[in-house]
Amino acid sequence: MPWRNRDGREGLTMGMKHWALAAACVSALGLTACQSERMGRLNTQPAPLTPAPVAPVEQEQLPPPSQPDPQPSGFPAAPGEEVSDQPEVASTDPTAPLTPPPGSAPVTKNSLVGSWKTRSGGSTCQMFLTLTKYGNGSRGGTRGCAGDMANVRGWDVKGAQVVLYNENGDTVARLYKSGNEKLDGTTSSGQSVSIFR
């Protein structure tokens, strides 16, 4: 309802001005939300790729399996490593302690603390060994490891042997010093494992 101001002219009340402004904004917003068909729909899907030509598949019989070659592998021995004519054979009982290799040096806990690269089962990952008490040994762990090595939670030194444990205290792997900043051994499932820096 219009009202008269001091000059005698008619005008809108403040409340009416706010309602008029709100109605204009809602109408403008409603109009901008409508999609125009003038530009057509935008095609956001990429065009399909044409397949690459494929050569025909050939089929042949495989040769019969052969016995392992008793000859040496042809790889040179690592520095400080003795060459033996006897092939390496895995233990039949993977939980049995390994006999230390001849000349394996004793290991101290302090020399093992820190980060190690671990190779087991063809993959490489990280292992961290600390002096924090964990069960009967010290806390340790792995990152990015698979298989048995993924379960390492603790470790301890037993003479020249480093024993890795899971959270239940079961042996995961046994390692011996095989070089400067390198230890080799086997997991409880019989898989070879190496840690090195």
Automatic annotation (TrEMBL):
Its main location: membrane. Residues 62-73 have a biased composition (Pro residues). Signal peptide: none annotated. Keywords: Cell outer membrane, Lipoprotein, Membrane, Palmitate, Signal. The keyword DNA repair does not apply. Residues 42-115 are annotated as: Disordered. SUPFAM superfamilies: beta-Barrel protease inhibitors (SSF50882). Transmembrane segments: none annotated. GO terms for cellular component: cell outer membrane. Residues 108-196 form the Alkaline proteinase inhibitor/ Outer membrane lipoprotein Omp19 domain. GO terms for molecular function: endopeptidase inhibitor activity. This is Alkaline proteinase inhibitor/ Outer membrane lipoprotein Omp19 domain-containing protein. It comes from Zhengella mangrovi.
